[in-house]
Amino acid sequence: MSELFDAVDALVASRATLPPPAERKRLRAAHGLTIDEVAGALKVRRATVSGWESGKTEPRPPERDAYARLLDQLAELYPAPSALEEPDAPAVPTTFTAAPAPAEARTLSTGPAPEAADMTATENTQTSPAPVAAALEAAPRPAGTSRSTSTSRRPAVRKAAPAGTPAGGTDPRFENGPLAVIDVEDGQVLAYCTGGLVLDVPAKSIPALVDWTLREAKLGQPKLSGPGKDADPLIVLTEAALERYGLPVALTDEERLAGRIPEGHKVIKQLVRAEWKLTKRGFGPWARIYRPAQGSERACVQLCIPSWNALDTRHWGEAGQLPPAELARVLGVYASRVMTPRGSTAVTGLELMTALHPPTRASEADATGKRHSEHNPGSLGKDPVDCAPCEAPDGHPLLKDLPRFHVRGPGEKLFEEAYDWARPMTDAECTLRHLVGIDVNMAFAAGANGLVVGLGAPTHVKAPVFDPKLPGSWLVDLSHVDLSRVKLGKDKWADLDGSLLPSPFTPKGERPEGPAWYATPTVAYAVELGYDVTPLEAYVRYENGRYLDGWYNRLRDAYLATMADLGVDADLSPADFLTAMDGYRGRDPELAIVVSAVKATVKGGLGKLRERPRGEGWRPGGPWRALSRPTWRPDIRAAVISRTRINLHRKIVKHAAFTGQYPIAVLSDCVVYAADGTSPLDFLPYRDGKPLPGGFKLGINPGLVKHEGTQSVLWGEEVRERFNAPELNLARYIKDGTVTDVDNGE
Fold it and tell me: Is the dihedral of CA 550, 551, 552, 556 positive or negative?
C-alpha cells in the first residue's frame, strides 16, 4: 500500500501548482533575479525560463517541482497587493491575468468609484460573485454615490484586467482611466472605461455628456512632462450612442469630404447654447469640445467616433468594430503606453512630441512674486520658423518666385526619403532556392534615437567645413564615393562588388551625378566610408538638441511592453524569437491592434513634420494651415529618414563584407536576400548565438530585425517576367507573395 501512496504523491507532485506567467515574472523581478540566474539554478536553458514566463511553454518534472518551490518562497517574500476579501478568503495577486470582465460584471453609477470595488480576480482563483457582491454592498460609499439596482446587471466587481490593460491611474482626479466608450444597453447609457469598469451615464444630450465627463466621470491622464498639460478625457461614441444623442451613424459623402457635420446641425446648436466651442476642424470624427481655460483649469473633451472612420483601418485594424469593453481596452492600453489619442495616429505622434517638450514653462518668480510664461529649453517653441529653401516642398511660399512648371533637381531640393531599390538576380543567386525578407523593427523610431536635430531657424553658410555634429542641410558632391572599396572601421578597408549595392545617397539607390542637398547623417556616412567631402554651402542649425529622445523612448517602451504581452520578449534567443513571432497576432488580436497603432504613430508623427496642404482652398505659392505650427519641421523629418536609411545601409555593407551576400531588393525597412533555406538563420552569420557586430541581429528591439516573409526564387523570376520588370521590387511583395500590379515605385 505504501508504494501506491508514494505513486499518488509523485503524481500530485508532477503537477505542482504554478501561478500564471505574468506573476512568475513579477516574483523573479521583485527579488532582483535575472533569467540567467534562475536558469542556472534549475539547470535549464535561459530560453526555457523565458518561455515559462511568457506562457509559451510549461515546466515539466523534475524542474517543475523546483520552480514551484522557488515561486512559493518568493510569493511569501513579495505578496501581491490583496483585494477586498471575505474573511478567510485567499489573497488574490493583482498581476494575475483574467479574461475581460463582461459588461454586466462591473457597473457603477455616476460619481467616484467606491474604493471597496477595487476587486481583483484571476483565471486560477475566481472569487464567487455572491460574496463579492455582498462585500461591495456592505462597503462604505462616498456621499452622493448610488449603485445600480437593475436586475440585468450585478453590482460593481473589479476584475483583473487582461494582459496589457491599464486599470486606471494613481492620480485621484483620473481614477477611472483616460477614456470611456459610450454605449446604450437596454435603454441605459453606459460608459465602458479601462480595466473593465462600467459607469452609468445620466447625460441626455451631448452638452450634458461633456459636462458629466468633466465634472463627475473622473477621466483623463496626467501630463507627461513637468511644464505640460494633463490629457483631456476621451469619449468614444458607438453607433447606439450616436443615435441616442441625435447624431448620424455615418457621414454622407459630402460630410465625409468636408470632415465634419454641417454647422447648422441641431447638436452643434445645442453646444452653442450651452456655451461650448468647437475647434476649427468642427464636429467631425475627432471633435474637440471646450471652453476657454480659466487660469490653469482646462475644460476640454475629445470625442472619437469610429463609425465616422475616426479609427483608420490601416492602423487600427478592426478596432472600430469591437464591442465597447474590448474597444475601451485597446484604446486604454494605447493611452497608458503612448498617450490618450488626440486624433489619427499621425496627429497623436506629433502631439506626443509636444507633450514631452512643451513649448513654454513658468519662469522663476519676479520681484512681485509673479511667474511668467517663458521658452522651454529643448522644445521647438511656440512660434513657427521658416525652413531653408532647399528643405521646402514644392508649392511652398518660399518658392513662389520660381517659374510655374519649374522642376527642382538634386542641387535645389533636399530629397531624403526611404529606400525603394531593386536589381536583377545574378546567375549564382538564381541557383539558390529561396528569397528571404527581413524587416527592421521600428526602423524610423530607431533612426530618431539619439539624433541631434535643429531646434531653431537655419543659418546659411557659404563654403562651410563639414561638421557631423551640426544638424542641417548640405550641398555637396558625393559622386566620388566608390562602394567597391569602403572603410569599415579604423584603418580597415573592404573590397566589395559595388554594382550589387544600392547607393546610400539616393532613395532609388542610384549613384549621385553631382552636387546635391543632403541631411547631416548622409554626409557623415560618406566620411565614415573613408571619403573626403567639401560642401559648397549649407543651412545649419546652431541651436540644436536630442529633441526626439523622449519620444523614441516612450514609443519603444510601448512597443516592447505590448509585444511582451503577446509572448515576444526582448531577451529571446534567435530561434526562440522566430518561433515567438510566428502567429503572435493570434494570441491576443486586441493587443496586436495596439502594436500596429504604435508603429503607425511613429511613421505618421514623422510624416506630420512635413504635412502638405489638405484641401483648404490652397494654391501653389500660398501658405497652408500646417505651416503655422512650430512642429512643421521638414528638416527634422529629413534627418530621421536620412539616419534610418544610413543605418540600414551600414548593416548591408557589414553583411556583404563578411558573407559575400548582397541584397536583391530594399524597400524602406525591408531587405531581401537569396538563400538556400527559408529562415533568416539560413543566411545571417550567427556564431555561437552571437550576431555579426554591426550587422543584422534578430530580435524585437527597435533597430533589430524580424522575418518578413519567404518566397521561392522561381516566384521572384516568374513575377518579374510576367510584368516584364527585371527590377520589380520584390521586397514589396515578399510577405505573402501577392503581386497585384506592376510596381511603379509609389
Answer: positive
Contacts of 245-251 spanning 24+ positions with Cβ under 8 A: 245/205, 245/206, 245/209, 246/205, 246/206, 247/206, 247/305, 249/307, 250/307, 250/308, 251/308, 251/309
How far apart are alpha carbons 368 and 362 in whole angstroms? Answer: 15
Question: What pTM value is reported for the model?
Answer: 0.78
Task: Identify how many contiguous H helices and E strands the chain contains and give both numbers.
Answer: 21, 22
Mean model confidence pLDDT for the chain: 86
What pLDDT score does 489 carry?
Answer: 83
What pLDDT, on a 0 to 100 scale, did the predictor assign at position 8? Answer: 57
SS3 letters across 315-356: HHCCHHHCCHHHHHHHHHHHHHHCCCCCCCHHHHHHHHHHHH
How far is 694 from 320, CA to CA, in rounded Å? 41
Could you tell me which of 334, 279, 119, 301 has the C-alpha nearest to residue 216? 301
Give dist(CA 301, CA 685) in Å, integer. 53
Residue pLDDT, tens place only, 238-297: 999 999 999 999 999 999 999 999 999 999 999 999 999 999 899 999 999 999 877 667
| Whole-Å CA distances, 263 to 259, 614, 646 | 12, 20, 49
- Alpha-carbon span 653 to 645, nearest angstrom: 12
Which of 183, 220, 177, 207 lies closest to 195, judged by CA?
Answer: 177
Residue 13 confidence class, pLDDT cut points 50, 70, 90: low
Cell of 407: 522642376
